[in-house]
Amino acid sequence: MDTAPAADTAPAATAAPADWTARPAGGGADRDARPYVYLEGTPGTALQDRLAVTNSGRAPLTVWLRGDGRAGAWIRFAADTVTVPARTRAEVPLALTVPPDAVPGDASGEVVADDGDEEIRVPVRVRIGGPTLAALTVEDVEISGGTIRYALVNRGNAMLEPRLAVRADGMFGTLLDRPERPLPLELAPGRRVERTEPWPDAPALDAVTVRLRVTAPGGARDEAEASATYIPVAPAVGGGLLVLGGLALLGSGAYRRRRTRRGDPEQPGAEQPGVEPPGAESADDRQPTTETRPLVKAGPLVKAGAES
Q1: Which regions of the chain does DSSP assign to beta strands (E)?
Q2: Predicted confidence (pLDDT) at residue 233 exceeds the cutoff of 60
Q3: What is d(CA 66, CA 75) in angstroms, rounded to the nearest whole number?
Q4: What is the pLDDT of the chain when averaged over all its residues?
């Protein structure tokens, strides 16, 4: 029996790590240790920094530089294309000009270095001088099965780190109460992010109201809510009647009771079937002691199975 060549059975080789880096330039013992470019200035100011490109390979390296994002569009490089000799580190000057009409607050972007096969992104953060406003809204809250959907929007001019608290109340009390916790994101000014909150133990039969509260440093705060009715899916007529009975309990909280009007004489003895006592009103003429209105509405009934 023929055997496959060894090359066919060997595991696929993993990609070699990049032999070059791009990061903010630094000096001294912490050279090139900054995680991002950070600049501060007022509208109309030109700010300076440097990008370090290190080629640890054995051949010359050519990279193309560009800015990306809001603050990235304000960046200009001393050269958009840089060739770095083997085993060499090169520093590329860059200038960031804050637009004269820029709104005070935080702006973000990236410096992108691309060698044609791989790109490295260096974060850029800019603090624009002037009064800042922290404003945050939570919008489009929806409940779908075991998932709560919502959107966060930064309405101010400051970078926000939002926190979220979730509460859900049903007909018979609180179903969910999650205290405020930080969310794993930074929300730039003007940015909108759609998120989901899992609710694995959502009720099978209940009318619920979910409330979301978001906050952020600087006084940003907002709340929003949504309501939903959970109804189990019943495959047969009998199950459908059970669901309707549950909805009736949710709507009224108790069974309706009927009785004779106050002052009607009680008739001694057992009543005969089909015969009403003299002077008594019929059951159709009597009214319930209290009027109840369902809190939820049931849709049209659909008959399941074949009719008898």
Answers
A1: 20-24, 37-41, 46-55, 61-68, 75-77, 81-84, 88-97, 105-114, 119-128, 136-144, 147-154, 163-170, 173-182, 192-198, 206-216, 220-230
A2: yes
A3: 8
A4: 78
CA 150/CA 225 separation, integer angstroms: 10
Question: How many angstroms separate the CA atoms of 57 and 88, rounded?
Answer: 9
User: What token pair was written down for 265?
Assistant: 């004489």
How far is Cα 75 from Cα 77, in angstroms, rounded to an integer?
A: 7
| Residue for token pair 């009403």 | 276
Question: Under a CB-based contact definition with an 8 Å cutoff, are residues 129 and 41 in contact?
Answer: yes
Which residues partner with 125 through β-bridges? 38, 108
Each residue's pLDDT tens digit, 71-125 = 999 999 999 999 999 999 999 999 999 999 888 888 999 999 999 999 999 999 9
**What does pTM read for this prediction?**
0.52
Residue 80: exposed, middle, or buried by beta-carbon count in 10 A (0-12, 13-18, 19+)? exposed
Q: Which residues contact 123 (CB under 8 A, 6 or more apart)?
A: 35, 36, 37, 108, 109, 110
SS3 265: coil
- In this structure, how many other beta carbons lie within 10 angstroms of the beta carbon of residue 240? 17
Looking at 79-214, list the stretches that DSSP marks H as alpha helix, in order from N- to C-terminal side: none
